[in-house]
């Protein structure tokens, strides 16, 4: 188990802001995550997760390109189906990102422990994930790393999209679409246009990855053989995925149709989040239990559309930030 490695000065800084690191819970390529206790000014206690990024140990490309993008994206997000960011601040070479703690781990862990997800539960989770992506894409943000490990489960088993380390904006200063050139995410979830190694539109690739997530939930296995990239690409282009025999008879035709629309190798024909959620797909009533947006979802989408209309260029040239980047927010973290 990794110990909490902080200096007295760092502990004092955290303490003055109301935070105390409790224990190590996991790590990524350039970051470690800790269970954290937060005490508000009115003496209320909250359990959070703290992601600490040590830039002195990270590659220059990550520090200059990917980290600023992630920070710039995170400070804009406020949606019930995206991980709730509590605050962000920088101290010397470290960035501290405090977010809500997901009591039930991630979707991959859930599937490995419990097996295939029932179709009824898939309806609920797919709706939440599609709404989260619709919100992101309305803000012209692409996640670029949708996978089961980046989908977190709350205390009440609602899902939230997390880990925006590969996220980026999808339009330039002139509001023109920007093609992605970076190979992002995990090969198992990567769309065929990414595997080609040529510039691609990032939004449709998010929907492909969502289709892989849906397939994994229903089938407890990946849709394609990912041991070799060439074989993976050929299977993707040939739509050569199959549900296991004991699962195929249990999954409805309507649900299989959703998988078909998402695992469409042509990104121009692949359905977007709005199409997956809309009634004109012809499967809405069977796949999604609650078609109408609730108040929190509707407000979040309305805010995204309003910000999109403003076409602010600040996200293209973010200012250099020091100290507190996103102070403790009063935004509600819905869907516990």
UniProtKB/TrEMBL annotation:
Gene Ontology molecular function, alphabetical: ATP binding; tau-protein kinase activity
Every Protein kinase domain range: 19-289
Record InterPro entries: Kinase-like_dom_sf, Prot_kinase_dom, Protein_kinase_ATP_BS, Ser/Thr_kinase_AS
PROSITE patterns for the chain: PROTEIN_KINASE_ATP, PROTEIN_KINASE_DOM, PROTEIN_KINASE_ST
Gene3D superfamilies in alphabetical order: Transferase(Phosphotransferase) domain 1 (1.10.510.10)
Binding site for ATP: 51
GO terms for biological process, alphabetical: intracellular signal transduction; microtubule cytoskeleton organization
Key words of the record: ATP-binding, Kinase, Nucleotide-binding, Serine/threonine-protein kinase, Transferase
Region feature Disordered, mapped onto this chain: 304-336
Pfam families xrefs: Pkinase
Entry keyword annotation includes DNA repair: no
UniProt keyword Transferase, yes or no: yes
GO cellular component terms attached to this protein's record: cytoplasm
Domain of life: Eukaryota
Family: Belongs to the protein kinase superfamily.
Designated name of the protein: Putative cAMP-dependent protein kinase catalytic subunit
Provenance organism: Operophtera brumata
């Amino acid at each position: 188990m990794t110990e909490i490695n902080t200096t007295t000065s760092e502990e004092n800084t955290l303490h003055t802001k109301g935070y105390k690191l409790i224990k190590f819970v996991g790590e990524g390529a350039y970051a470690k995550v800790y269970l954290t206790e937060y005490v508000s000014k009115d003496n209320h206690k909250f359990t959070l997760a703290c992601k600490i990024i040590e830039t002195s140990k990270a590659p220059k490309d990550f520090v200059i390109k990917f980290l600023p993008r992630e920070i710039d994206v995170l400070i804009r997000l406020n949606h019930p189906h995206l991980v709730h960011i509590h605050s962000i601040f920088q101290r010397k070479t470290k960035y501290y990102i405090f977010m809500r703690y997901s009591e039930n781990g991630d979707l991959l862990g859930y599937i490995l422990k419990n097996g295939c997800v029932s179709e009824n539960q898939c309806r609920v989770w797919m709706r939440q994930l599609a709404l989260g992506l619709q919100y992101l894409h309305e803000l012209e943000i692409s996640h670029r790393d949708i996978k089961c490990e980046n989908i977190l489960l709350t205390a009440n088993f609602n899902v939230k999209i997390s880990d925006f380390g590969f996220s980026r904006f999808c339009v330039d200063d002139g509001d023109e679409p920007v093609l992605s050139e970076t190979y992002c995410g995990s090969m198992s979830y990567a769309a065929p246009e990414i595997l080609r190694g040529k510039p691609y539109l990032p939004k449709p690739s998010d929907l492909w990855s969502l289709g892989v997530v849906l397939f994994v939930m229903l089938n407890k296995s990946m849709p394609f053989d990912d041991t070799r990239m060439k074989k993976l690409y050929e299977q993707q282009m040939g739509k050569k995925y199959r549900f296991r025999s004991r699962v195929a008879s249990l999954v409805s035709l309507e649900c299989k149709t959703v998988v078909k629309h998402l695992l469409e190798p042509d990104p121009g024909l692949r359905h977007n989040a709005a199409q997956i959620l809309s009634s004109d797909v012809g499967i809405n009533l069977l796949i999604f239990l609650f078609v109408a947006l609730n108040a929190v979802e509707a407000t979040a989408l309305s805010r995204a559309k309003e910000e999109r209309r403003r076409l602010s260029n600040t996200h293209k040239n973010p200012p250099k930030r020091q100290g507190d980047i996103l102070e403790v927010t009063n935004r509600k973290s819905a869907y516990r």
